[in-house]
Design goal:
206 residues; alpha+beta; Tetrahydropterin Synthase, Chain A; 2 domains; eight-stranded mixed β-sheet
């Protein structure tokens, strides 16, 4: 009778790596991931609630995306890819007899990153088309002006934990009563050429 070959559990062949946030988020461990070869880690994206990094439950509605671009020993180091506001949170803010004003556009930061941005303002009352256009313009202009002063990572962190969106809401309130403004989604769509080449080369070598 032929000997029965015992199947090898593939998980036993894998090694666990700690996923480390970028410097802008204090290089904290934000999770772990397993791979049979470290080369397979490159390009993986880990989504983490901002509250995990800030310690504030008030930031739990923001989900941050970190992409692995370097492996050092048992640590998988990442870059900040962007973030997204929880859809359930957006739905809770959207009410009848009021307006939800959205704008989606690209903005260039001080350090030559291009970010794809979605901003939303919720008003306390229903507004006219002209009022919505004026509020949309305020969101775009203030975000573009802010981007000239900040690098990409700094700007995204400012949107999440800073008071910038409150300043937008205050300015928009001159047009109509505003309940809240959020930069609801940000994605890095273009990095400076040298940085992009470095990341591409690392992933190609992996």
């Amino acid at each position: 009778m032929a000997k029965r070959v015992r199947a090898v559990d593939p998980w036993k062949l894998k090694k666990w790596y700690s996923v480390i946030s970028p410097r802008i988020w204090d290089e904290k461990e934000v999770g772990s991931t397993a791979a049979s070869d470290e080369k397979l880690l490159y390009g993986r994206v880990l989504r983490v609630p901002a509250s995990f990094l800030t310690g504030s439950i008030g930031h739990a509605q923001y989900f941050l995306d970190f992409r692995i671009v370097q492996v050092v020993g048992s640590e998988a180091r990442t870059i900040f890819e962007g973030y997204e506001l929880d859809n359930a949170f957006i739905k809770r803010l959207t009410r009848r007899h009021s307006s939800k004003i959205e704008t989606v556009f690209d903005v260039k930061t001080r350090d030559d990153h291009v970010l794809h941005v979605k901003a939303i303002t919720w008003t306390a009352v229903h507004v006219s088309r002209n009022q919505a256009t004026a509020i949309r313009k305020i969101m775009q202009e203030m975000i573009q002006e802010r981007a000239k002063k900040f690098g990409a990572d700094e700007l995204m962190k400012e949107f999440i934990i800073g008071d910038f969106t409150q300043k937008i809401a205050a300015e928009a309130s001159k047009i109509a009563p505003v309940r809240r403004t959020e930069v609801a989604k940000v994605r890095v769509v273009q990095r400076p050429e040298k940085q992009s080449e470095k990341i591409t080369a690392a992933e190609a070598a992996a």
